[in-house]
């Protein structure tokens, strides 16, 4: 037997276990027929555990069985059926809520997890969801408070009975129309089920874009905190520090300090250098004593020409000065404090002595926190790498190295040009030689062709004369031999026969040899 539960998250089609739980199925079907489940909300939802409903009051303490409607308060609950045992083994099972002493009313729940065996002895399974598991997943993903009450109402809007095998008990009056929900039933203090939650309502396009950008930045900051790049989601770079890049390698700290000092007092100016070679990495950080001077320098100095280089100026996004103190203890600024317009003690020199004693000194900080962050201390100008003399010597060395690199580069370019010219000359010489050889070979072929034609004509004529002479000689020899044999036969018959046998044998031998095959054929034809 099937029942359709129409909810605000989708429809659920339920099959009831009529044979195993006849009394419970009778109670559930008649309550659906009386429209007692209409507008009941799911007042308790635990993810991957269960979702509970069936209480018209929405508190989890109300509801009564169909027998209470027919026979009064003494029959408000009825005793649960225990045989046969049906277990809570999978999601989508419907089970009546035990209100105590193995008594059941109208409340029921739907399982959202697997293997909930500890519910078997207390609650009574009477059906399962066969269609609408996507709606069940939507209910499972509802956002709830600490008491497992959804922030937005999830309600049963209507119930449809597809088949009811039980006859209606006497005195049961079936309503023709669904009853209207009461004000107390709808006033749950939560977001209404049909209310559209729109954070962008009533905002302008600029405000919406700003809100979206803020959410995206918050999401990126959360990811950076998860991977360890940020000490905290709320960590923000200081507002009084400028980032300057695309510097000329010969530009020094003093140069930048002199140029940017016209916008305000500079607390620290540092060009970042390689740890080993101490060569400039062509970017720097400039810290002013207030954000207003930093903003003025940002608007005036971007794309300005310094030492034949157009620099780029932007607000610093570095949080290397932030030191994470541990989970739940926040962060502290290494080398200073974040700027607060209401206070004047954000700098190191203006802090009380007690706070300075808590901080790590600039000399000990690189030793203790070298594995965690890049070594870059905001130190006073006169203590940076030995002072002005060290910087001047280092700058002179940088300029010498720059000139040497330029000379080596020029020498390498000259050598490449010479090699290119030599290769081009060799290639042109080789092409001229190949053209001369080609013309010579072609003239030789023509001369050889003419000489070869005359020689072939002479050879053909000589071979023809030689064949005629050889043919005439063989013909004369055969005629002489026949005359001699004829004379001998007339002179001696026996001798002539022997001579003929010997002559025949000789002719056979000559005819069998390859050289005389042609001659034998010719003589045979003549005879």
Word description of this protein:
- With 527 residues, the protein is of the alpha+beta class.
- The chain has twelve helices and 17 strands.
- The chain has helices spanning 22-33, 66-71, 133-140, 183-186, 205-227, 253-260, 291-301, 353-358, 365-369, 388-491, 493-512, 517-526, and strands at residues 2-7, 10-16, 44-46, 50-53, 78-79, 93-100, 103-111, 124-131, 156-161, 241-245, 266-273, 280-288, 305-306, 309-310, 312-315, 322-324, 331-333.
- Strands 1, 2, 3, 4, 5, 6, 7, 8 and 9 form a nine-stranded antiparallel beta sheet that branches.
- Helix 10 runs antiparallel to helix 11 (493-512) and helix 11 (493-512) packs across helix 12.
- The protein is flat, with a radius of gyration of 56 Å.
- It starts with a strand and ends with a helix.
Instruction: Tell me, rounded to a whole number, the average pLDDT.
Output: 80
**Which descriptor suits the 3D outline?**
flat
First and last CA, distance:
126 Å
Order of helices and strands: EEHEEHEEEEHEHHEHEEHEEEEEHHHHH
Largest sheet: 9 strands, antiparallel
In percent terms, what proportion of residues is strand? 15-25%
Integer-rounded radius of gyration: 56 Å
Which class of secondary structure composition applies to the elements?
alpha+beta
Question: Helical residue percent?
Answer: 40-55%
Give the low-confidence spans: 336-362, 369-386, 520-527
Kindly state the number of beta strands.
17
Q: DSSP helix count? A: 12
């Amino acid at each position: 037997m099937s029942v359709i539960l129409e909810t605000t998250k989708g429809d659920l089609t339920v099959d009831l276990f009529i044979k195993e739980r006849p009394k419970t199925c009778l109670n559930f079907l008649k309550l659906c027929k009386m429209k007692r489940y209409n507008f009941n909300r799911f007042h308790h939802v635990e993810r991957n555990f269960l979702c509970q409903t069936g209480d018209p009051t929405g508190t989890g303490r109300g509801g009564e069985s169909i027998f209470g409607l027919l026979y009064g308060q003494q029959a408000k609950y009825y005793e649960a059926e225990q045989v046969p045992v049906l277990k809570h083994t999978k999601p989508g099972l419907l089970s009546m809520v035990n209100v105590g002493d193995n008594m059941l009313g109208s409340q029921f729940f739907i399982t959202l997890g697997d293997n909930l065996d500890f519910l078997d002895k207390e609650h009574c399974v009477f059906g399962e969801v066969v269609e609408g598991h996507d709606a069940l997943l939507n209910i499972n993903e509802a956002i709830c408070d600490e008491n497992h009450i959804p922030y937005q109402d999830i309600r049963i809007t209507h119930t449809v009975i597809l088949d009811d095998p039980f006859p209606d008990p006497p005195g049961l009056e079936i309503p023709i129309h669904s009853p209207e929900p009461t004000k107390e039933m709808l006033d749950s203090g939560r977001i209404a089920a049909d209310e559209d939650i729109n954070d962008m309502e009533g905002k302008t396009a600029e405000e919406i874009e700003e809100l979206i950008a803020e959410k995206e930045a918050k999401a990126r900051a959360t990811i950076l905190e998860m991977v360890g790049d940020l000490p905290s989601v709320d960590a923000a770079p200081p507002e009084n520090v400028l980032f300057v890049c695309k510097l000329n390698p010969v530009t020094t700290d003093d140069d930048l300090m002199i140029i940017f000092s016209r916008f305000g007092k500079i607390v620290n100016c540092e060009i970042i250098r390689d740890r080993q070679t101490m060569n400039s990495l062509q970017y720097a950080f400039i810290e002013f004593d207030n954000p207003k001077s930093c903003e003025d320098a940002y608007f005036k100095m971007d794309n300005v020409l310094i030492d034949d280089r157009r620099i780029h100026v932007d607000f610093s996004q570095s949080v290397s000065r932030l030191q994470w103190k541990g989970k739940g203890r926040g962060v502290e600024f290494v080398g200073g404090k974040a700027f607060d317009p209401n206070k004047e003690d954000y700098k190191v020199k203006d802090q009380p002595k007690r706070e300075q004693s808590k901080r790590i000194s600039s000399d000990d900080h690189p030793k203790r926190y070298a594995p965690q962050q890049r070594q870059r201390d905001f130190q006073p100008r006169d203590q940076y790498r030995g002072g002005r003399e060290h910087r001047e010597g280092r700058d002179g060395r940088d300029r010498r190295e720059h000139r040497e690199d330029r000379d080596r580069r020029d020498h390498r370019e000259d050598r490449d040009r010479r090699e290119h010219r030599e290769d081009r000359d060799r290639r042109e010489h080789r092409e001229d030689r190949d053209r001369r050889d080609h013309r010579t070979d072609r003239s030789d072929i023509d001369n050889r062709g003419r000489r070869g034609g005359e020689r072939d004509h002479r050879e053909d004529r000589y071979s023809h004369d030689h064949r005629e002479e050889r043919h005439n000689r063989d013909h004369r020899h055969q005629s002489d031999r026949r005359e001699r044999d004829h004379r001998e036969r007339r002179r001696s018959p026996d001798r002539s026969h022997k001579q003929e046998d010997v002559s025949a044998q000789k002719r056979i031998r000559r005819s069998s040899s390859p050289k005389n095959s042609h001659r034998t054929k010719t003589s045979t034809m003549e005879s």
